[in-house]
Amino acid sequence: DIIDLGMVAAMESLNQSFKNGTVFIPEVLAAARAMNAAVLFLEPHLAEKDKWSGGKILIGTVKGDLHDIGKNMVATMLRGVGFEVVDLGINIAVDAFVKKVAEEHPQVLALSALLTTTMPEMRKVIDALTRAGTRETVKVIVGGAPVNWNYADDIGADGYARDAADAIDLVRSLIR
Description:
single chain, 176 residues, alpha/beta, Rossmann fold, five-stranded parallel β-sheet, 5 strands
């Protein structure tokens, strides 16, 4: 109940306020830090049946890109509304994404790139998933400042998220 009625409800409200433009990135980051701290504190005390089960998301920043603020915000917001998030971190090689998809069996793989020079890595990940025979088992979404819908469509991604609020809506629509 603490997670569902308290923390998730609060993050849902924050998500809506962020969409409406009544709260901004600093507030979202502060709430995200609080949410992470609360989850870390509560997790050992939760029975398996009490843990949320919104679906599993694998997220990471592609090879060559060391930026993580946007990725971290998306990961935290997804956790906050009930998804299990496996965060691979930054500068993740194509093969590492493919290996983790095979190991973790996520419903969604979220790829982040802040640099135009690292955007081609997103296509490489999608192509490698296809070659590995796992592309049909996972929805791939992309995001980051230089990324847009046209690019997502061009590389064969299942969706594009402009920000954390869009990512939540997109993931929900893909998992339904």
